[in-house]
Amino acid sequence: MSENKPVRFGILGCAEIARKVSRAMRLAPNATIQAIGSRSIDKAKKYASENGFPDSAKVYGSYEAVLDDPEVDAVYLPLPTSLHLKWAVLAAEKKKHLLLEKPVALNVSELDKILEACESNGVQYMDATMWMHHPRTAKMKEFLSDPERFGKLKSVHSIFSYDAGPEFFKNNIRVKPDLDGLGCLGDAGWYCTRAILWAADYELPKTVTALREPELNEVGVLITCGASLSWGDGRIATFYCSFLTNMTMDITCGGTKGNLRIHDFVIPFQENVGQFYTASKSTFAQLSLGCGPIPSEHAVTTDLPQEALMVSVFAGLISSIERNDSKPEKKWPAISRKTQLVLDAVISSIQKGFQPVEVGN
Amino acid sequence: MSENKPVRFGILGCAEIARKVSRAMRLAPNATIQAIGSRSIDKAKKYASENGFPDSAKVYGSYEAVLDDPEVDAVYLPLPTSLHLKWAVLAAEKKKHLLLEKPVALNVSELDKILEACESNGVQYMDATMWMHHPRTAKMKEFLSDPERFGKLKSVHSIFSYDAGPEFFKNNIRVKPDLDGLGCLGDAGWYCTRAILWAADYELPKTVTALREPELNEVGVLITCGASLSWGDGRIATFYCSFLTNMTMDITCGGTKGNLRIHDFVIPFQENVGQFYTASKSTFAQLSLGCGPIPSEHAVTTDLPQEALMVSVFAGLISSIERNDSKPEKKWPAISRKTQLVLDAVISSIQKGFQPVEVGN
């Protein structure tokens, strides 16, 4: 890959989510779609055509062929989670940078194999958690980092739920134990967990305790669950995720001096602008006849949707590695791993009858 | 008390909160301030004058004198919780209707003695949970009861926190083990618990599990805590309350078909109007490029502040009892008792090392 040329992406599989991410690759100025591979070449051809892939994009009848294409710099891997270990490791071994759809692995031991393969092959790893890249996220972090406006973090509550509907419960990979075995925890809970870690500056909690009475489908996959997290220093967090509850995508952070709320953190209601709400030094009015301030709305606009920014940031890191012969950025694998560690602790707590579980390293 | 005459209130003690509630008595069309008693008659005189009591209001140098005044129909009791049992029972025995400030008692066994005294003396009991009486609360309940707009309740999260400040931690009754021994749980947690029960149509949860790592002050009073509640049927709730976290007063309800959010449920930002926010049948846009609907704001105006409505409802019940020689309304003692049962379960769970506790009857 020569300097100033866009990073060339290969896509493994014809996942629904890849429609959105391939659009992001078309929108990102420093990325292009180089190839797609599916076990069915006809499916891949149809998919490429439906999703506006450039004529130059190669269409392959296997995942291997994408990995073997020397013109593919980076791979986007949206396959079911149970296939991540195999294909992510293979991609890294073929020296392809890896944009890995979440949930990234079935557990941290699998993820560690993936991360080791990426590190030893000098390729960049990033999980495809889009909201991290919305400029709103940085603006919110500014607020949370402000000792005057927010103070010290005390509490976080996060919710990601949606009413998935009957078709989903019949056919979606997210409710199949052999495909996405972490169910709603891996899907929606991934975001809640990431939101909590993000608010806590990625400091792992000491203990994680699953909420009692998660809901499972008839084949034992989680379809509603939650947990509480504690850091041992007065910070606590809770989250709730479900495939059965109307769409809610909230983060509520409480600090000693302020609070922050957001209601569409995973996918903004609107593509070009995202809101969040803050209040600082709130007090009761005289005689407690009211209180204030009324939370302020902050609207953050973005020229590119968050998923295009994600692709662009990832491609930028790759260009920098290639240009400078430098090492991959370690932040992204580190926070991905921490997210997985918390998910693992939730599963472990459920298995141990909702006892508190120390978060691993 | 003759028909159409306002209910005549006696107030026990010169509590800060009674300034607001005595104002409410002046605003409510069917109530009047008849008397106030304090252990110091000078303090009571000053208080009556500062708070615009009518000239006709009696000022007594003891609580007993208020209870012995035959022209007092009802007593408002805002004393520290540790004194509630004694004075509430005495008030009931003197045939005074009882508006009891929260937290109503140190535990349900104390509350039961109060409720028994009220019942056997035929007096109305109500706890002073003001937000129950805001017309917004009824509007929100309409939404939660709508099978199309909200569906079945799945989750509730409630927060009530405020940054109480150094003066509070030195002197306030809410952090003194011999006065308000339930600390932030009895104060702020009372509202969260009531909100959750309200959302669940006052069905008690099966189990309550305290969140780990509550914070205590140096004399062992709770200053931050939380809990999860479960009903055993897929409904779960969590709450967080604190004296250390910037003011937040949220209820977030998730149903199968909708959600509801409110950010000032305890004390509305503004006295004459209260907002809440709902969304129904939310879905992702095509390709998940957005989602909707954006939550709708509902603004509910009120001519009288919620505390005046509370006084008015309470006075109305009393008038009805006196007029018709009928029994007191049982709803109010029942929901007060359920709230106390949940608080007791939180305390018990903390004492048992954060194990789940079955909620008593």
UniProtKB/TrEMBL annotation, chains A, B:
The UniProt entry's sequence similarity note says:
Belongs to the Gfo/Idh/MocA family.
State the name under which the record lists this protein.
Gfo/Idh/MocA-like oxidoreductase N-terminal domain-containing protein
* Residues annotated as domain GFO/IDH/MocA-like oxidoreductase: 147-260
GO molecular function annotations of the record: nucleotide binding
Task: Name the InterPro entries on file.
Answer: Gfo/Idh/MocA-like_OxRdtase_N, GFO_IDH_MocA-like_dom, NAD(P)-bd_dom_sf
Q: Which is one Pfam family of this protein?
A: GFO_IDH_MocA_C3
The organism of origin for this protein:
Camellia sinensis (Tea plant)
**Could you tell me which residue ranges the Gfo/Idh/MocA-like oxidoreductase N-terminal domain spans?**
7-126
Print the organism lineage. Eukaryota, Viridiplantae, Streptophyta, Embryophyta, Tracheophyta
